[in-house]
Design goal:
Blueprint lengths: L5 E4 L4 E4 L7 E6 L10 H19 L3 E6 L17 H9 L3 H18 L15 H14 L2 E4 L2 E4 L1 H7 L10 H6 L17 E5 L15 E3 L3 H11 L3 E7 L3 H16 L4 E7 L2 E3 L2 E2 L10 H6 L11 H9 L7 E3 L1 H23 L13 H10 L4 H19 L7 H18 L9 H22 L3 H13 L3 E5 L2 E5 L1
Parallel strand pairs: 3-4, 3-9, 9-10, 11-13
Antiparallel strand pairs: 1-2, 5-6, 6-7, 7-8, 11-12, 14-15
Helix pairs in contact: 1-10, 2-3, 4-7, 4-8, 10-11, 11-13, 12-13, 15-16
């Protein structure tokens, strides 16, 4: 932990040196999915962003407790306090139990995250499994005087809270303007102000998921789960809370308010938010109907796609941009990422085959330090990737016989590439299962036969194998040690 990590704190709007409360232990909470449909490309960005942070914190020597929640109750169709529960709606339409919907999409989400090489969190709590904790959290807020009961529901009193604390500090919203635009609605709902948000909602007669509480048979508000589960597993104060920028308001703003009201202080030291993936300049999301599911990406079945794209191509596409910048999706951008990743991984494979010489004629010193410096500068993954591509030039020079590398330099280069490609960026080769290994061996066998034919001056057989494989899309390159190929 000699390296100083600087991360952008959304709350203070500046980069800050990361100083955990209880080093070497770090508490990190990230908002996970609402499991009522398949994950889409927009979901991959927070998953990969905070997976990369998780990996790098561990590389720096921290012991990380990573909590990523599953929202399976309380997230309503229209906004945080109105409409039908999304999971309950799915269950009703498909004549299923809500937990059948939850289980089905949670398992699919886990499978897709595994394909993207996103590490599982330390703890993955479900909102529905923490109703008691959420009820107790509401009791604390009521006792502190920052909430009120109305017709069996409990609402957070934003105006009263703002007199002592600052509502809007994370998102930059102006509380006076928010209150001014809501006063005309007084008396039209059970809330005192439209800006007030639900901590507990009384269930309507047809509502499927509901639990007993001191106020009514009902269910928790969407925002409440993260405050209750974050403090349960990470304590009343913890280090990092992450999520997509679309969650800053109202979700994370309400989390801050709930925690301050219940505990008398904020819980989170560093708020981190990844930016959005856009399509034609517009945020990609289910509500806008412009999303592409991961399954569509992996199979190439979406109309905007010309081909299937491998999970590692998607991961590389995300990592090529800084997490706080927007990324505009296009088929061409994915194709460019696919080609870039193929070049990088091909060089990584070549690195494993290099042999050491007495001295180095290529410059490889300082690569680890440059990569660490980029990662410590608010997780600047595109700069890390550029450093790896710069080092690839030296690797290819040695591979082509135009340079040499010493044993110590070769060992260090292998170590750095392994650490930053696999351990930190989480990139891996796609050909890991038995069928792919058999496929690779079959191609190698054909090219070995071709090599033998060339040595025997059987040019007809040699040319036939090369031409047939080239026609199938294989790129074959003869080398001084034999051959190389890729598809």
């Amino acid at each position: 932990m000699e390296n100083k990590l600087f991360i952008y704190n959304t709350l203070t709007r500046k980069k800050e040196e990361f100083k955990p409360l209880h080093a070497p232990h770090v508490g990190m909470y990230v908002c996970g999915p609402t499991v009522y449909s398949d994950a889409h490309l927009g979901h991959t960005r927070p998953a990969i962003t905070f997976d990369t942070l998780y990996r790098y914190l561990q590389y720096l020597g921290y012991k990380v407790r990573y909590v990523r929640n599953i929202t399976d109750v309380g997230h309503l169709e229209h906004d945080a306090d109105d409409g039908e529960d999304k999971i309950a709606k799915k269950a009703r339409l498909e004549n299923l139990e809500p937990m059948e919907v939850v289980q089905y999409y949670t398992l699919r989400y886990h499978k897709e995250m595994e394909r993207l090489n996103v590490l599982p969190p330390s703890i993955e709590p479900h909102a529905s499994g923490h109703i008691i904790e959420q009820i107790e959290f509401v009791k604390k807020i009521l006792a502190a005087g920052y909430a009120y009961e109305s017709e069996g529901s409990v609402y957070f009193d934003v105006e009263k809270y703002n007199k002592k604390f600052h509502y809007g500090k994370l998102s930059g919203r102006n509380i006076d303007e928010l209150l001014e635009t809501t006063r005309t609605l007084d008396g039209q709902t059970e809330k005192r102000r439209s800006i007030d948000f639900a901590l507990w909602k009384k269930a309507s007669p047809g509502h499927i998921m509901h639990w007993p509480s001191p106020w009514s048979e009902g269910f928790p508000g969407w925002h409440l789960e993260c405050s209750a589960m974050g403090t349960k597993y990470l304590g009343e104060e913890f280090d990092i809370h992450g999520g997509g920028m679309d969650l800053m308001f109202p979700h994370h703003e309400c989390e801050i308010a709930q925690s301050c009201a219940a505990l008398g202080h904020e819980s989170v030291r560093y708020w981190m938010h990844n930016n959005m993936i856009t399509i034609n300049g517009q945020k990609m999301g289910k509500s806008l109907g412009n999303f592409i599911t991961l399954e569509e990406l992996f199979t190439g079945t979406h109309p905007l796609l010309s081909q299937p794209f491998a999970p590692m191509t998607i991961r590389f596409f995300i990592l090529q941009a800084h997490y706080r910048s927007t990324v505009d999706f296009s088929n061409d951008a994915l194709i460019a990422s696919e080609k870039g990743l193929a070049r990088l991984m091909e060089t990584y494979e070549r690195l494993q085959k290099l042999t050491a010489s007495e001295n180095s004629t290529v410059e490889v010193n300082g690569l680890r330090e440059r990569c660490e410096e980029a990662m410590c500068d608010d997780l600047n993954t595109p700069i890390v990737i550029s450093h790896l591509f710069d080092a690839a030039k030296a690797i290819n020079t040695v591979h082509d016989g135009k340079g040499t590398i010493s044993a110590p330099d070769l060992a260090e280069l292998k170590s750095v590439f392994h650490v930053f490609i696999e351990d930190v960026l989480g990139l891996q080769t796609e050909t890991t299962n038995e069928s792919n290994e058999a496929y690779k061996k079959a191609i190698d066998l054909l090219l070995e036969i071709r090599l033998q034919a060339k040595q025997n001056k059987d040019w007809a057989t040699s040319d036939k194998i090369r031409n047939e494989l080239t026609g199938l899309g294989f790129n074959i390159k003869d080398t001084k040690d034999g051959f190389e190929w890729n598809l």
